[in-house]
Amino acid sequence: MKLLAAGCLVLGLAPFQCASEPPPPLAREDAPAEALMLLAAEFDKDGDSEARLRTLRFVCARYPKSRFAAEADVTLSELGAGGCEAAQANAAASASAAASVTAPSASAEASAPAAPSASAKVP
């Protein structure tokens, strides 16, 4: 009976034990965003400000919930580059522009001359 009660207690607490997303300051695994911030620092050290800005914007766009996105936001704002909101808006605009590029239409393919077949005789 005690074993059954203990089992019910453990199963009853299971949802409370499930992992949830920690707040950004407490996040433990930020390896990609952290590596990108280190890369941005290297670009800054080398004097490549354009690469630094692109890297910081990428951190904002790709890892918006990362604790490093907040750091990138502050740095971008200090540099007068608009911060993470501007970077995310630019990323969304780029994605929609890429999606609007389409393959040739069926009517354009229909009007194009057909390629000769392999069995066609060549004089």
Structure report:
This protein is mostly helical. The protein has a domain at 29-95. The chain is built from six helices and no strands. Helix 3 packs antiparallel against helix 4 (67-78). It is elongated. The N and C termini lie far apart (94 Å). The model has no long low-confidence stretch (mean pLDDT 74).
Features:
123 residues, mainly alpha, 6 helices, elongated
Distance between the termini: 94 Å
Strand content: under 5%
Instruction: Please state the CA-atom Rg, rounded to the nearest Å.
Output: 27 Å
Structural class: mainly alpha
Sequence of secondary-structure elements: HHHHHH
Low-confidence stretches: none
The total beta strand count reads 0
In helices, the fraction of residues equals 55-70%
Q: How is the main sheet built?
A: none
**Average predicted confidence as pLDDT:** 74
Number of helices: 6
Instruction: Name the shape in a single word.
Output: elongated
